[in-house]
Amino acid sequence: MTTATAGLNLVEDPWILVVDRTAKVELLSIREVLHRAPELSGIVGEVPTQSFAILRLLLAILRRSVAARTGSAVDVWSQLWELDALPTGEIETYLDDHRARFELFDPVAPFFQVAGLKAAGDAVGALDKLIADVPNGAKYFTTRAGRHLQQIDFAEAARWLVHAHGFDPSGIKTGATGDPRVKNNKGYPIGVGFAGALGGVFLEGATLRETLLLNLVLLDINGQRYRLDDIPAWERDPDGPRVRDNPQPTGPADLATWQSRRIRLVATDNQVTGVVLCNGDPLEPFNQHLLEPMSGWRYSEIQTKKAGGQTRHYPRTHDPERSLWRGMSSMLDDLASAPTAGNGITAGVVHWAQHLVVDDVLDPAHPVRLHAVGMHYINQQSVVGEVVDDTIGFRVGLLSNTTLRSIAARAVDSADKAVSALTALVANLTRAAGGDPDGPRTRAREEGYFALEAPFRRWLAGLDPRSDAFDDEYRTWHGIVRSIIDQHAADALGAAGKPAWVGREIDNRWLDSGVAQLIYRTQLRNAVPGAFEPTDDDGDRR
User: Fold this and answer.
1) What is the pTM of this model?
2) Which of 297, 295, 294 is nearest to 311 (CA)?
3) According to DSSP H, which parts of 45-196 are helical?
């Protein structure tokens, strides 16, 4: 098996999957994607994390293309936003200058790979080591299930190559010849790819052009410019099999292209048939919040103590069991807090958008979507468990309007309390009937949140920062919540039957359907007081 001589240049040849504004999927080169960004809706891929990894690569190119622009960060961004397209002249110049480093099978500096990388015995791994939707040895959540993955074309290989550096699981890797870290021909775990450690977030606009610019963050969360030596991997000398000397990230472009692995694709004339995938540059994810804008961050008191008092902020990873809208409250609270010890830190892309609105560069009424994407790993992070992919839309002025932020956060809190009232009712009805409340309570919680999700998304998207009727909007939400949760409560009461109506004594107190309903009504009133008249004690008003 030989390395291909004919190949693929990522700048010139199509490899990125995109969807245009008519929902048509196309395969384009980097140059074409950036040129046609105003007419494209976004990037797609085999898995959502692949799209995220490619978006980060394109952002690194855009960031470096405009690096020579002078003026304040806000002025530079404003000039870009006012254009009808991306700055194609600067992008073309940059791509022409670095085109040679984007050859997928260059004999000296293949893109995102190590030329001549070998494992002991010159072993070559199967493609399921590269492809995230085929977990190695556990093909359980893939459209490829039941198919033998013998080969893929160059374009797909390029997409998975970019993805592997960002999201490859941890675990024992093939030991690279020439890497002093290798023991017994094995590379021992150094952690997941850097992007895999993040709770990835980005802002989406109506077009790919808007999305790229909304995530082109030019100031860190402290309002400082990024370092001038923040460069992507292709502007450095090609890597060898061993780790770089003291690799320390310099900024967003460096982190977006961080070489977490050492890789060599093995190919025939027109297909990739195997991969050598070894450990690359390790990177601890904590305290990268000044350099990495595409994740939120949580303060870890335990790790701070272990570090002798040195403050430790870790990426706020996504919970696969919790929808994005339910986390809005903590994100908005973090946005209002100083990025210091004890506080969470909102993603830099969100801080930057807030800054642009405050500086009158971005229209507060401009619609955006907050997109969360990430990987959840299992088995000591050695296997992909689940992929998180969720969005929520709102007008960008929400981020800068203190009153609106408070109302949105309180709306989530009121929904939480209303669902808690529902689950308490279901649990009490089950106890009154002599049953075990755990299962019914869990189901009621899931059903309650599911029922509120779509209404909340519609309500949030309709909030207008230019309005002065925020209190009315908040009461409207309370009414929506009461109507939905009351219906679920009525269903639960109807299904409880005679045993719950008769009731029984529990912990020296009598519990039956009537008592459970009174408790529920009190808790619901506390959760959504705006849905009740001051004298509405019988619960009849809707």
Assistant:
1) 0.91
2) 297
3) 48-65, 73-82, 88-98, 154-167
